[in-house]
Automatic annotation (TrEMBL):
Top-rank taxon, per record: Bacteria
Residues of the full protein shown: 243 to 599 of 599
GO molecular function annotations of the record: glutamine-fructose-6-phosphate transaminase (isomerizing) activity
Lineage, highest ranks first: Bacteria, Bacillati, Bacillota, Bacilli, Bacillales
Active site, per annotation: 352 (for fru-6p isomerization activity)
Keywords: Aminotransferase, Cytoplasm, Glutamine amidotransferase, Repeat, Transferase
Domain SIS: 40-180, 209-347
The protein's name: Glutamine--fructose-6-phosphate aminotransferase [isomerizing]
Predominant location category: cytoplasm
Length: 357
């Protein structure tokens, strides 16, 4: 039920801090340490390469998951679109482990790959929000998102839940392998949950950005580098899916290789700048597009040099920034769609579960 909310999407955006806290609880042992069922951890340790397979928003969470698993568990990861993997299968490593990410657990493109890799005799783990769903039943193991039902077609709380569960999986595997780390994940996920509260209380700021940048535009670009690039892809998907504004996410460094030709006077460019190691270079990209007339909006994070930025996010661990940097983008998409009179929860041409290939 929507309760007092005008739309499920807004309700589900607001549920994200609570979902974070539920996930922390669900994956803690009695001593407060993060735990994952031993079989899954062993499967991670045995794998020489992990193949993440997913669609849409779940694919975008997978891109972040690759960073988390490679950094925290030191296992190489490839991320594939399910619809491409089926007929364009990459050369597989000797001991692959497949991870299917699917909010619904019913996505036909993902299921087709799962059936194929099971026939080939490989092990598969499904990360899903729906216990007993097809992908959960047909995989060897399941990790649940604990996000509660997601009704709006635009996925919001499932994305952040997927990232949190992937972080836990990566961190538990890393600990089992004794990979050195300074990350106290329980603490940092708690900090991220509080940062999410702050953002959910700051909706007006994002409504204003939508009103100022997007009312009459035909397009909008999201730029970022490293992990911010992946969040930009998700921001663009959210915006196009519900507001029908043509939106694209680009890696900052790629602009000069063609994309910058699209920038005209007034083109909205939303830049994410949450990462220390690329802070200077993404700001240089913002200058480049500003010089060509773009209407730029920098969303950065406390702790970096943030003077003049449009919105400064509360500080969280740099590996976990997608959990919070996506929230302004979800809200900007929501308000842009609302202002355009679109059906926010049920955008045209789309279904919540895509059960055809
Ligand atoms: O249920 P799934 O996570 O497998 O769904 C995958 C995509 O269809 C889904 O994420 C879609 O991209 C969303 N509508 C995006 O908001």
């Amino acid at each position: 039920e929507k309760g007092t909310y005008p739309h499920f999407m807004l309700k589900e955006i607001d549920e994200q801090p609570l979902v974070m806290r539920k996930i922390i609880q669900a994956y803690q042992d009695e001593n407060g340490r993060l735990q994952i069922n031993e079989e899954i951890t062993n499967a991670m340790l045995k794998a020489d390469r992990i193949y993440i397979v997913a669609c849409g928003t779940s694919y975008h969470a997978g891109l972040v998951g690759k960073q988390l698993i490679e950094k925290l568990a030191e296992i190489p990861v490839e991320v594939h679109l399910a619809s491409e993997f089926g007929y364009n299968m990459p050369l597989l490593s000797k001991r692959p482990l497949f991870i299917f990410i699917s909010q619904s657990g019913e996505t036909a493109d993902s299921r087709a790959v799962l059936v194929k890799v099971k026939e080939m005799g490989y092990r598969a783990l499904t990360i899903t929000n729906v216990p007993g769903s097809t992908l959960s039943r047909e995989a060897d193991d399941t990790l649940l998102l604990h996000a509660g039902p997601e009704i709006a077609v635009a996925s919001t709380k499932a994305y952040t839940a997927q990232i949190a569960v992937l972080a836990i999986l990566a961190s538990v595997a890393g600990a089992a392998k004794r990979v050195p780390t300074d990350l106290d994940l329980v603490k940092e996920l708690g900090i991220a949950a509080s940062a999410m509260d702050t953002l959910c209380d700051a909706k007006e700021a994002f409504e204003q950005i939508a009103a100022e940048y997007l009312p009459a535009t035909i397009n909008c670009f999201f730029i970022g580098r490293s992990i911010d690039y992946f969040v930009g892809l998700e921001g663009a998907l959210k915006l196009k899916e519900i507001s029908y504004i043509q939106a694209e996410g680009f890696a900052g460094g790629e602009l000069k290789h063609g994309t910058i030709a699209l920038i005209e006077k007034g083109t909205p460019v939303i830049a994410l700048a949450t990462q220390t190691n690329v802070n200077g270079s993404i700001r240089a990209n913002v200058k480049e597009v500003e010089t060509r007339g773009a209407h730029t909006c920098i969303i950065s994070m406390k702790g970096l040099d943030t003077a003049g930025d449009r919105y400064v996010l509360p500080h969280v661990h740099e590996l976990l920034t997608p959990l919070i940097s996506v929230i302004p983008l979800q809200l900007i998409a929501y308000y842009a769609a609302l202002h355009r009179g679109c059906d926010v929860d049920k955008p045209r041409n789309l279904a919540k579960s895509v059960t055809v290939e």
